[in-house]
């Protein structure tokens, strides 16, 4: 049960990231969340929306795994691994903050699922 709650939390985090990247990217909230300058935000808006779409697929996969119940264990593990790997890459190439926002929650959810919590 704890594992599924954490999976749901990771899915919610990614839905919020989708909203930030696809809707708020070139607003003051988006600038603050990602440390953007307005000119860069405007120029990169389409790229951010594309990135947001990928985060939406991660969230959809996690939600699908939850919807499948016990049969969704492998689906949840696969998408959590995708989230964790993407977070590691983002932390290495963009900002260490991504490690804490994305990778740590995914790793905790993975651990809880593996332990049967």
Can you describe this structure?
The protein has 117 residues and is mainly alpha-helical. 82% of the residues lie in helices and 0% in strands. Helix 1 runs antiparallel to helix 4, helix 1 packs antiparallel against helix 6 and helix 5 runs antiparallel to helix 6. It is elongated. The protein starts with a helix and ends with a helix.
Gap between N and C termini: 6 Å
Radius of gyration using CA atoms only: 15 Å
Residue windows where pLDDT falls under 50 for at least 5 positions: none
Shape: elongated
Specify the number of helices: 6
Total strand segments = 0
The ordered string of helix (H) and strand (E) elements is HHHHHH
Mean of all residue-level pLDDT scores: 96
Task: Give the % helix.
Answer: over 70%
Q: How large is the share of residues in beta strands?
A: under 5%
Secondary-structure class: mainly alpha
Reported for the largest beta sheet, the result is: none
List its salient traits.
117 residues; mainly alpha; 6 helices; 0% strand
């Amino acid at each position: 049960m704890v594992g599924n709650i954490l999976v749901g939390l990771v899915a919610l985090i990614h839905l919020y990231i989708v909203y930030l990247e696809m809707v708020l990217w070139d607003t003051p909230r988006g600038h603050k969340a990602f440390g953007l300058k307005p000119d860069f935000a405007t120029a990169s808006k389409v790229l951010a929306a594309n990135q947001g779409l990928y985060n939406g697929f991660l969230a959809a996969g996690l939600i699908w795994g939850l919807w499948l119940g016990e049969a969704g264990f492998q689906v949840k593990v696969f998408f959590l691994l995708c989230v964790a790997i993407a977070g590691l890459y983002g932390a290495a190439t963009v900002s260490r903050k991504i490690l804490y926002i994305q990778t740590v929650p995914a790793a905790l959810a993975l651990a809880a699922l593996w332990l049967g919590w």
